[in-house]
Write a structure and sequence with these properties.
Blueprint lengths: L1 H7 L3 H26 L7 H27 L8 H17 L5 E4 L4 E6 L18 H18 L4 E9 L2 E8 L5
Antiparallel strand pairs: 1-2, 2-4, 3-4
Helix pairs in contact: 2-3, 3-5
């Protein structure tokens, strides 16, 4: 977003609001599509998984392209930890206008990224009634993270956990390459 706003002349705050609105509408569109495709009845588990997969895949593609643009003039990263730190500082700040609040690791390929006030969940943070829908709003960011990591040479499984709004814990589990 930062690079896009510099190129387009759109103020950073305007781009952030536009991104949040676009993300919210994307989730709403896929929910409506799911309900219309399912005959109006309750969605099946397979339909829910398909919509989450679409959101995650969109995020993956955006994450790949965005990190490529961000890192084109940077030297190669030395190790996995340096890549994840870049993701938590520069990548996150560029997308969400702040760094993550906490990064934890077991030094065995598992990282936990904590954002205490995740901007895509802040509008829903007024009550617990939205807690059961948070997985819809974290699928795209999980894809962003996975896409960025893939482009930087790391295969990973990325999941999100929301126990209290707007706090999100993203767990990144690196997948070792088989030799």
């Amino acid at each position: 977003l930062q690079a896009a706003t510099a190129d387009s002349g759109i103020p950073a705050a305007g781009a952030e609001v536009a991104f949040q609105f676009l993300h919210s509408e994307l989730v709403s569109f896929l929910l409506r599509e799911q309900l219309q495709g399912g005959g109006g009845g309750p969605a099946t588990v397979q339909q829910c998984r398909a919509q989450l997969s679409k959101l995650e895949t969109m995020g993956f593609r955006v994450g790949q392209a965005y990190v490529e643009k961000m890192t084109k003039d940077l030297p190669r990263f030395r190790d996995d930890l340096e890549i994840v730190k870049f993701l938590c500082k520069d990548f996150w700040a560029s997308l969400f206008k702040k760094q993550v609040d906490n990064l934890k690791t077991n030094h065995q390929g598992v990282y936990v990224v904590i954002d205490e006030k995740f901007s895509l969940l802040v509008p829903m943070a007024r009550g617990k009634q939205y807690l059961d829908r948070c997985h819809l709003y974290t699928a795209f960011p999980c894809g962003l993270i996975r896409g960025a990591l893939t482009n930087l040479g790391l295969r990973a499984i990325v999941t999100a956990e929301v126990e209290e709004l707007p706090r999100v814990k993203f767990q990144i589990q690196l997948v070792q390459h088989s030799a």
